Amino acid sequence: MLLTSLYNYWVVIALMMIGLYMVLAQGNLIKKIIGLNIFQTSVFIFYISVGKVNGGNAPILAHGETIYSNPLPHVLILTAIVVGIATTSLALALVIRIKRAYGSVEERDIQAEDRPC
Amino acid sequence: MLTHLPILQVILPLVAAPSCLIIRRASLVWLFTLGVSIAAFAVSALLLQQVSTSGAITYGLGGWDAPWGIEYRIDLLNAWVLLVVTGISTVVLAAARASVQAEMDQARQTLFYTLYLLCFAGLLGIVATGDVFNVFVFLEISSLATYALIALGRDRRALWAAFQYLIMGTIGATFILIGIGFLYMMTGTLNMADLAQRLPEVSSSSTVLAAFAFIVVGVCLKLALFPLHMWLPNAYSFAPSIVTAFLAATATKVALYLLVRFTFTVFGVQFSLTSLPLQSLFIGLGLAGVFVASVVAIYQVDIKRMLAYSSVAQVGYMVVGIGISSVVAVQATLLHLFNHALMKGGLFLALAGLAYRAGSCHIDAFRGLGRTMPWTMAAIVIGGISLIGMPLTVGFVSKWYLISAALESNLWFVALLVVMGSLVAVVYIWRLVEAAYFQEPAGDQPPVVGEAPLSLLLPTWLLISANLYFGIDTRLPVEVTGAAAQYLFGGAQ
């Protein structure tokens, strides 16, 4: 019962853990960024789930529609998506410069190169 | 005009940031940025004056009142933090020109000031707003600007430090976002004042507990509370000197403000500090941070890195104050917030002067510095004495309040450990004094040409003399923080 009726939250938790694990475990910087994206996306889905009202319609004025979903979390998450895009693009820009400076996007190589300094 | 002060505080630097790109010439942009910062300082001074005479100010954004629109709410606590942030920013900017010219390409200087203003606007927004989602947005504005500012460092390790901070910072901010989502689920509001009213009814639910955990961990990541401090030493040591001075004196302070705001105002004293074991957790982690970071600081050869570890230790003292959670202890935390901004602002500006002349902040560059750069070195010594917490400096005032708060609550071992932590600070500051005054410059090293330029030296000494002035005449900070601490406990008692 709990498993099926709240399955969207289980999806959120699964995605969140996959994303966080990728950020921590992957040595490749691009894969880290992908992990970070999955982690953030799980939070977006969580917010959208919160706004859903059972049997609710889209929040538009229409004939006979009295139950509608809460639009506020959707608006909030639009902002968070923009923030996520900005973070991803900044991270990718940093990776490009790291690649130029170190010649690698592997965490292990970068740390090995810095050690003698 | 006066009624719009709360929004002016934030919108001024936010609008000024893209305007820098239109002005383009670096020296003009510097002047413009400095002007904006001075204006922001004037606004925050007016706000503090208004708040202390007539109580908290609320401002509905775009004329929309609180439950529907975003509310800005200025009380004594955030008026005080706003004043500290804008004041430090103005002094740091006054010193910025020479250091930025020396450390950055011509083409990047305009962009530096743009990023600086964005970061500044973000920090002020976090402090001014009374809406939790708005906190997240401004947190990300300031963080994204910070990552880019750190990546401006000349050393390639700055890039790696910025990337690491980006990963940690984004995880922290996303944690805060999850916590805010949980709060919205339970209460249906994002307004801090409304949350404070509605949360006690549902405070026993596990959703609220989870929200609290996510938010506290997220904020502590930004605050660099031990053991979540791993990003800070790299970020501070490889960022440009001016960026380090600005971040060390403001960014962690704003994160500390956020921690105080969430634990005391939003969740309430009753929930955060009575029904949860947060007190022992904060005292334990704070003291562990003081000792681990101070001992690591002793072994650093890069002095910027040494002071970065010292910052982690100082954050520990502030969190201990929240952990003891009496009025005097929270006052000590708020005092240390101001005092630490003065100390670290002054010290990192002095290091900017050293980096300007010697090109490095390695301990070897300090040899014989007492003779070649007497004023810069004297500033570092006084700043260091304040960091240790000797009488007649600001460092003494906040430690005094912290220790008396610990004794009042019968936590004598906490008082003892705070004193011992200060003794460890003596060791790492003494290394600098020894190198500067008792060692000859190494033969193979190019001699330091002379004193730092006046444009760097004057702001440094302004902050250093503030360390002495507020160490002797303690009225202003003690009165404001005392009233702010009582105000924080006012709702609960």
Automatic annotation (TrEMBL), chain A:
<keyword id="KW-0812">Transmembrane</keyword>
<dbReference type="GO" id="GO:0005886">
    <property type="term" value="C:plasma membrane"/>
</dbReference>
<keyword id="KW-1133">Transmembrane helix</keyword>
<feature type="transmembrane region" description="Helical">
    <location>
        <begin position="6"/>
        <end position="24"/>
    </location>
</feature>
<dbReference type="InterPro" id="IPR039428">
    <property type="entry name" value="NUOK/Mnh_C1-like"/>
</dbReference>
<dbReference type="InterPro" id="IPR050601">
    <property type="entry name" value="CPA3_antiporter_subunitC"/>
</dbReference>
<comment type="similarity">
    <text>Belongs to the CPA3 antiporters (TC 2.A.63) subunit C family.</text>
</comment>
<keyword id="KW-1003">Cell membrane</keyword>
<keyword id="KW-0472">Membrane</keyword>
<dbReference type="Pfam" id="PF00420">
    <property type="entry name" value="Oxidored_q2"/>
</dbReference>
<feature type="transmembrane region" description="Helical">
    <location>
        <begin position="75"/>
        <end position="96"/>
    </location>
</feature>
<protein>
    <submittedName>
        <fullName>Multisubunit sodium/proton antiporter, MrpC subunit</fullName>
    </submittedName>
</protein>
<feature type="transmembrane region" description="Helical">
    <location>
        <begin position="36"/>
        <end position="55"/>
    </location>
</feature>
Automatic annotation (TrEMBL), chain B:
<feature type="transmembrane region" description="Helical">
    <location>
        <begin position="306"/>
        <end position="331"/>
    </location>
</feature>
<feature type="transmembrane region" description="Helical">
    <location>
        <begin position="135"/>
        <end position="153"/>
    </location>
</feature>
<dbReference type="GO" id="GO:0005886">
    <property type="term" value="C:plasma membrane"/>
</dbReference>
<keyword id="KW-1133">Transmembrane helix</keyword>
<feature type="transmembrane region" description="Helical">
    <location>
        <begin position="206"/>
        <end position="226"/>
    </location>
</feature>
<feature type="transmembrane region" description="Helical">
    <location>
        <begin position="6"/>
        <end position="23"/>
    </location>
</feature>
<dbReference type="InterPro" id="IPR050586">
    <property type="entry name" value="CPA3_Na-H_Antiporter_D"/>
</dbReference>
<dbReference type="InterPro" id="IPR001750">
    <property type="entry name" value="ND/Mrp_TM"/>
</dbReference>
<feature type="transmembrane region" description="Helical">
    <location>
        <begin position="280"/>
        <end position="299"/>
    </location>
</feature>
<keyword id="KW-0472">Membrane</keyword>
<keyword id="KW-0812">Transmembrane</keyword>
<feature type="transmembrane region" description="Helical">
    <location>
        <begin position="77"/>
        <end position="98"/>
    </location>
</feature>
<dbReference type="Pfam" id="PF00361">
    <property type="entry name" value="Proton_antipo_M"/>
</dbReference>
<feature type="transmembrane region" description="Helical">
    <location>
        <begin position="28"/>
        <end position="48"/>
    </location>
</feature>
<feature type="domain" description="NADH:quinone oxidoreductase/Mrp antiporter transmembrane">
    <location>
        <begin position="130"/>
        <end position="423"/>
    </location>
</feature>
<feature type="transmembrane region" description="Helical">
    <location>
        <begin position="238"/>
        <end position="260"/>
    </location>
</feature>
<feature type="transmembrane region" description="Helical">
    <location>
        <begin position="165"/>
        <end position="186"/>
    </location>
</feature>
<protein>
    <submittedName>
        <fullName>Multisubunit sodium/proton antiporter, MrpD subunit</fullName>
    </submittedName>
</protein>
<keyword id="KW-1003">Cell membrane</keyword>
<feature type="transmembrane region" description="Helical">
    <location>
        <begin position="410"/>
        <end position="430"/>
    </location>
</feature>
<feature type="transmembrane region" description="Helical">
    <location>
        <begin position="110"/>
        <end position="129"/>
    </location>
</feature>
<comment type="similarity">
    <text>Belongs to the CPA3 antiporters (TC 2.A.63) subunit D family.</text>
</comment>
